[in-house]
Amino acid sequence: MQDRLRISCSRENLQQVRDFVRGFLVSAQRSDMVVNQVVLAVDEVVANFIIHANGEDASQFLDLLLVLADQHLDIEIEDHGSTLFLPAGKVANPDLRAYIQQGRKGGMGMALVSRIMDQVEFFERNSHTVCHLTKILK
Amino acid sequence: MGPIMKVTAQPADTTLTLVLDGELDASSAVVLDTELNKPELLKYKKVLIDCQRLSYISSAGLGVFISHLQRLQDSNVKLVFFNMQEKVFNVFEILGLDSLMTIVPTEQEALAA
Q1: DSSP state, A70?
Q2: CATH code of the domain made up of A2-136
Q3: Tens digit of each residue's pLDDT, chain A (138 residues)
């Protein structure tokens, strides 16, 4: 099964993205915990694309594609903005004690994505940034 | 689209309870940040976060708590979470934040923490 969604680059659309991923995985009868984890991973990547890659420019848009074959979940998020945004797929463990001391707000999103998904990859396709996430749903 | 997070403050003597209702993400985290930024928060001994109706948290939501924790600790205000749904607790666990923050099952335990 597969499904697609296109959203403009506004953080108000994060709710729509989560509802889309939830609806897809719930219809595939996945557990509440697994659904929430995958929803979180997609939300984090999409928020990064909206805020950091596109500066919340609502004239830009993202395409999401979800594909589930047996237990193999593939998620592709394509940024149609003009700026390439290629963070490392796997990130170092954040030093949370230091974050607390510094009163730091950001820097945990991609760590969450790395720990939830089996594979995290950013690459360039047709001058656009694409993020590919995979997970075997047990 | 309206706000997806509602924060209700319930003051009582030396304790302030913030009741969270909704989803805490990069869009709604500012609502909570505004509440935790209020100077009067520092007059309480304890700030309890009632998470019963908190159905989702992303790193933006976690970041709001992390960014205020040291300031609260420096003012001897204890931050305690209670009534947290399992899937929300799991997000704290994935990062190891459950060992750095005080999270208890019930309001009674939060008051006693």
Answers
A1: T
A2: 3.30.565.10
A3: 999 999 999 999 999 999 999 999 998 888 999 999 999 999 999 999 999 999 999 999 999 999 999 999 999 999 998 888 887 766 778 899 999 999 999 889 999 999 999 999 999 999 999 999 999 997
Residue A8 amino acid letter: S
DSSP A11: G
Interface contact flag, A37 B90, Cβ < 8 Å: yes
Interface touch B27/A33, C-beta < 8 Å: no
Q: What is the C-alpha separation between A74 and A67, in angstroms, rounded?
A: 5
What residue ranges do the domains of chain A occupy? 2-136
Does A31 lie at the interface with B, CB-CB under 8 angstroms?
A: no
pLDDT for the residue A47: 97
SS3 B110: helix
Distance, in Å, from the CA atom of B61 to the CA atom of A45, rounded to the nearest integer, reads: 15
Chain B residues within 8 A (CB-CB) of chain A?
1, 4, 23, 25-27, 56, 58-60, 62-64, 66-71, 86-87, 90-91, 94-97, 100
Domains of chain B with CATH codes:
5-112 (3.30.750.24)
Q: In sequence order, what are the residues at sequence separation of 6 or more whose Cβ sits closer than 8 angstroms to the Cβ of residue A61?
A: A6, A7, A8, A9, A80
| CB atoms A104 and B1 under 8 Å | no
- Interface probe, candidates B24, B59, B97, chain A, greatest A C-beta count within 10 A: B59
